[in-house]
Structures are given as structure tokens and as C-alpha cells.
């Protein structure tokens, strides 16, 4: 019924235009014989619009070209292309196709004709695939289905076509989607826009690029209009952005990186010197530790010898007291000899003790008298140095300062300075030796009895003084022993410090290598960034592109070539649609149906 109505309407329209058509056809036939005799025409420019139909999967099917000429002078024109057939779209005059040459008479300012192609490849390979609920399906199997739909669109360069269009043309891909069918439309690289009550998803492919896109949606009773793909020259001139401020920032970054590298280089030199100093400190500390240990080991012998001297003096003093009034000439000679031996022992003790104290003073004096504040230590902790190494440095510094203070200054009355105490002891020994030498001398030059009395008094006083010296010597050796034990811990800290500074030097050295590479890589960063901007600008700026014909290189004055590509729609066939329309028609009145014939 519907087909009959359409046929009636078409027949009526055909009868109305038939006389005009016959007259035009007759006129065209009569003028065709004179077509080749007409003068040659000229045109200012030519444009081509390439129309291509693809299957729903993207396979190329039908392709034709609409050629448009801007005619300057009416007359015969020649065009070229591997057409299978041609059709005049301007008037009813005949167009001649001879191989790849097309000849026609242009009698209008704008002349159009269509050329049909057979196997001319498009510049792009377009592949379209579909997944329904995660399973790949053929497009003909998804009509009317429900579920989660994913449409995959992939564009690649067609190696069989002229690459000039792929390199200089951009593609715009549009998917019109009915909002009653498609819900929850999602895509990552496209733009979703409203098109009336429907949605339109659009993708852009830049010149020379191969892309892949995905559209996902929930569908109900699936139908789909054809995907529209437009290819056009990217001839717009892209204005280069003002990168002056950006390059200036990059230059500041490059300069700052260079300054950081210089700072790290200075830090590396300082840490290297610190490590060398720590190594020297460790060597000196090892010698000092060895000396103080030897001194501590000899303390027992020193105490023993002093004890013998004390006992000898005490015995001599008692002997003189018990033997007063007797002839002690022989004993006096023995006493003189014994006193001379004691004086020699005291001299050796004095010399050894003085040399030991001098060595101690030199070693401990080598400890730097730095005054490092808490603020400076806190600042060091906030740096990027190893916290363990910092703690070792601080502990070693404090221990070294304690040793230095105890040796040179002491800690009040309870703990007098070690160095001055030793010097005082040496002076006491010297005084004792001088007293003994005086006694011996007096024995040689004085009256025997008188000398014995003086000797008795001198030895008694000497014995008493020596007891005090002996007590001081015991305290001294106790201090040396304690110092030897404490210094062992200090030396262990110095050793840990040396190991830590060595690791720190290695770490800072690696850091310096890294900052050097960073400084080297960022040195030319401003120029590299500008070159990259220029490269990107050159990649997408196709303003100097000269259009060429899609169908034949022989065609001249081509001003523009465009591609209009559309895939096959996935819709119900005409019979199903007509049945639905007939059902709707039955609901219309007589006048509505009559008016529809002429709409």
C-alpha cells in the first residue's frame, strides 16, 4: 500500500517535469554535435570532493569524486582521472570520457561533474570493530540487541595510496548516537556533544598520525547511523606561542642547577678534606692510644720502684736514729752510695715522666679547639648528610673536647688538670733529687757527727716528703689508667668517625656525579625546549601545503581536495520500517495522508 502511494506521487511529479526535461534533452542533443567545435574555455581553480562509502567494518566499497570548476571563460575544458563513468551535474550536456581524459563544455561560471571510481584506494585504512558484553561480534549480528557496546575505530596509513594526503590532512570522525538507544556514553580521547536530543562523539586525527579510539555505551534495541569521517587539509597557520617567559624560567632552572652543582662540588671538596683530617686524626689517635697504654702498663713498675725508694728512705732514717753516737763511717759511705743511687733513680723517673707528659701535651694539643654551637649542629642535622655520621661526629667532638679540657684545664678542685699535675710531680722529683744531692754533698764536706745529725734530720724530712710524693704518684697512675680506658672508647669513636666520613665522601661524590649530569643535561634546556616547540609547530603547521589532485597528477589549478567518508548504517531494512510507517499511517486521517503525498 505504501509503495503504491509513493509510486503515484512520483508519477505525478514526473508528468509535471517531463516536458521540460524532454525539451532540455533535445536541446542538449542538438548542441552535442557542436560541443567539440566550441572554443576552448579557461578556469581559475578546481576543487575535488571525494565521497566514499564503507562497510560497517570500514572496508572500502563505493567511491566517486565531485569536481567543481570556477570558469573564467566558457568553452571546452579537459580534466583527467581513472573514472569508470562520468556524469554532468550542472546541465544535461554530454561529457566525453576517453580513457583517463574527460572533456566537456562549460557554459556556467561554476561547473560540476561526477566521476565514478572503481579501485582507487583512500589515503587511510580504517578498521571498525564491535564488542557486545565483552565479546567481539559482527556488525550484522548486533541489530536490535541490548547490552554493553564497545566500538573500536583504528586509522592507519594506506601504503597503496599517495602519502601526501596522509601527511597533510586531518581526519574528523563523528558518531551520531540516538539518546533513546545509547546511554552512559564514555570515551577517553574524544569529545561528546549534544546534537539536539541526541549525542555526537567526535575524534580528531592529526596529519601523519595513526590513532585508535574506543566508544563505550549501554544500548537498548541497537540501531546505529553511519559513522561520518571528514578529511580536510590542515592548512591553517598556527601562530607560534610566546615562549620567552617559559624559556627564561628554564634558563633560571638551568642556572640554579649549575649553582647547585657548584655547591655540591664545594661540599665534595670539604667532605674530602674532612675525611682526610679524620684519617689523620685516627692515625694520631692510634699512636696516642698506644703511648697511653704503654704508660699505663709501666705505671705498676713505677709504683713498685717508688715504693722501694720510700721504704729505703724510711729504713735509712730509722737506721740513723738507732745508730746515733756510734762510729758510722762505714755506714755513712754505704749511705752516700745508696743516696746517690736513689738520686739517679729519681732523675730517670723525672726524665721519663717529663718526656711522657711532653708527648701527651703534643698529642692532646693536636685536638682542634673548635667551639661548635648547638645552632650549628642543628643546622647540620637539617642538611642531607647521613644522620648516623653526624651523630658520630658530634659524639667524637664532645669526647675530644673533654679529653683536651681534662688535660689542660681540669674540672675544678675534684679533678685537677692532668698536664699541670704531671709537671708539678716532675718538679717534686727534681726537688727531691736536689735535696738528696745536697745531703750527699754535705756528707762529703762536713764533720762526721754533725753530718750524721744533719743527715738524720734530712733523711727524716726526705722520707716524710717522699711519702707525699708516693701518694701523688699513685693518684697520677690511677688517672693515667682511667685515661687509658676512656681513651679506648674515644679512639673507637674516632675510628667510626673515619669510616663514616669515608662513606659520606663516597655518597657526596656520587651526589656530585648526579648533579654534574643534571647540570649538563639542563645546560641547554632553554634552547632544547625552543627547538622542541619549533619542531612541534613545524609538524602541525601545514600552511605551506600546495593541494594536489586525488585522481590524477595531470590536473592543474587544484585549490582544494576534501574527503567525505561514511560507513554503512546498522538499521532495520525498508520493509520493517514501511510496516511501522503503515501502522502509523493508519492512525492518520484522509487529509493528512493526502498532504503527505506532496511533502
TrEMBL record:
InterPro entries, per database record: xxxLxxG_rpt (IPR023908)
Signal peptide feature range: 1-25
Biased composition (Acidic residues): 575-586
Region Disordered, residue ranges: 569-591
Keyword terms: Signal
Protein name: X-X-X-Leu-X-X-Gly heptad repeat-containing protein
Organism, scientific name: Salinibacillus aidingensis
Lineage per the UniProt record: Bacteria, Bacillati, Bacillota, Bacilli, Bacillales
Amino acid at each position: 500500500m505504501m509503495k503504491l502511494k509513493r509510486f503515484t506521487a512520483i508519477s505525478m511529479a514526473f508528468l509535471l517535469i517531463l516536458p521540460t526535461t524532454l525539451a532540455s534533452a533535445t536541446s542538449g542533443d542538438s548542441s552535442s554535435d557542436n560541443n567539440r567545435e566550441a572554443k576552448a574555455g579557461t578556469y581559475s581553480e578546481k576543487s575535488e570532493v571525494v565521497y566514499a562509502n564503507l562497510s560497517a567494518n570500514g572496508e572500502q566499497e563505493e567511491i566517486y569524486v565531485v569536481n567543481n570548476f570556477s570558469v573564467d571563460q566558457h568553452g571546452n575544458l579537459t580534466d583527467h582521472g581513472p573514472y569508470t563513468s562520468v556524469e554532468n551535474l550542472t546541465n544535461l550536456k554530454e561529457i566525453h570520457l576517453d580513457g583517463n581524459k574527460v572533456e566537456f563544455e562549460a557554459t556556467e561560471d561554476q561547473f560540476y561533474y561526477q566521476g565514478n571510481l572503481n579501485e582507487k584506494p583512500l589515503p587511510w585504512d580504517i578498521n571498525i570493530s564491535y564488542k557486545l558484553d565483552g565479546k567481539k561480534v559482527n556488525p550484522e549480528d548486533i541489530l536490535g540487541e541490548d547490552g554493553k557496546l564497545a566500538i573500536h575505530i583504528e586509522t592507519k596509513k594506506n601504503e597503496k595510496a599517495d602519502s601526501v594526503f596522509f601527511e597533510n590532512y586531518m581526519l574528523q570522525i563523528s558518531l551520531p548516537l540516538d539518546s533513546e538507544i545509547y546511554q552512559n556514553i564514555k570515551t577517553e580521547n574524544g569529545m561528546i556533544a549534544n546534537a539536539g536530543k541526541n549525542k555526537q562523539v567526535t575524534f580528531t586525527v592529526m596529519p601523519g598520525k595513526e590513532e585508535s579510539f574506543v566508544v563505550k555505551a549501554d544500548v537498548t534495541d541497537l540501531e546505529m547511523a553511519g559513522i561520518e569521517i571528514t578529511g580536510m587539509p590542515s592548512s591553517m597557520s598556527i601562530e607560534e606561542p610566546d615562549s620567552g617567559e617559559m624559556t627564561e624560567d628554564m634558563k633560571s632552572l638551568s642556572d640554579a642547577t649549575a649553582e647547585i652543582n657548584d655547591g655540591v662540588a664545594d661540599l665534595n671538596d670539604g667532605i674530602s678534606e674532612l675525611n682526610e683530617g679524620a684519617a689523620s686524626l685516627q692515625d694520631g689517635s692510634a699512636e696516642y692510644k698506644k703511648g697511653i697504654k704503654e704508660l699505663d702498663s709501666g705505671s705498676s713498675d713505677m709504683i713498685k720502684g717508688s715504693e722501694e725508694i720510700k721504704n729505703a728512705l724510711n729504713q735509712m732514717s730509722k737506721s740513723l736514729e738507732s745508730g746515733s753516737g756510734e762510729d758510722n763511717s762505714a755506714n755513712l759511705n754505704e749511705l752516700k752510695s745508696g743516696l746517690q743511687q736513689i738520686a739517679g733513680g729519681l732523675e730517670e723517673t723525672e726524665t721519663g715522666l717529663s718526656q711522657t707528659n711532653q708527648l701527651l701535651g703534643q698529642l692532646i694539643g693536636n685536638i682542634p679547639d673548635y667551639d661548635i654551637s648547638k645552632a650549628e649542629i642543628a643546622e647540620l642535622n637539617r642538611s642531607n648528610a647521613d644522620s648516623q655520621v653526624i651523630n658520630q661526629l658530634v659524639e667524637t667532638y664532645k669526647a675530644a673536647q673533654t679529653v683536651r679540657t681534662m688535660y689542660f684545664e681540669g674540672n675544678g678542685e675534684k679533678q685537677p688538670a692532668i698536664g699541670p699535675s704531671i709537671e708539678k710531680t716532675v718538679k717534686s722529683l727534681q726537688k727531691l733529687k736536689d735535696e738528696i744531692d745536697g745531703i750527699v754533698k754535705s756528707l762529703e764536706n762536713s764533720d762526721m757527727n754533725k753530718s750524721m745529725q744533719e743527715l738524720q734530720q734530712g733523711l727524716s724530712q726526705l722520707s716524710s716528703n717522699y711519702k707525699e710524693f708516693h701518694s701523688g704518684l699513685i693518684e697520677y697512675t690511677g688517672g693515667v689508667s682511667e685515661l687509658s680506658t676512656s681513651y679506648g672508647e674515644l679512639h673507637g669513636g674516632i675510628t667510626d668517625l673515619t669510616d663514616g666520613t669515608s662513606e659520606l665522601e663516597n655518597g657526596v661524590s656520587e651526589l656530585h656525579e648526579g648533579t654534574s649530569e643534571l647540570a649538563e643535561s639542563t645546560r641547554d634546556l632553554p634552547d632544547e625546549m625552543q627547538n622542541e616547540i619549533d619542531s612541534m609547530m613545524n609538524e602541525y603547521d601545514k600552511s605551506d601545503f600546495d593541494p594536489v589532485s586525488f585522481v590524477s597528477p595531470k590536473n592543474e589549478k587544484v585549490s582544494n581536495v576534501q574527503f567525505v567518508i561514511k560507513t554503512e548504517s546498522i538499521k532495520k531494512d525498508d520493509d520493517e520500517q514501511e510496516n511501522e510507517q503503515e501502522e502509523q499511517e493508519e492512525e492518520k486521517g484522509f487529509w493528512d495522508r493526502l498532504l503527505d503525498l506532496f511533502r
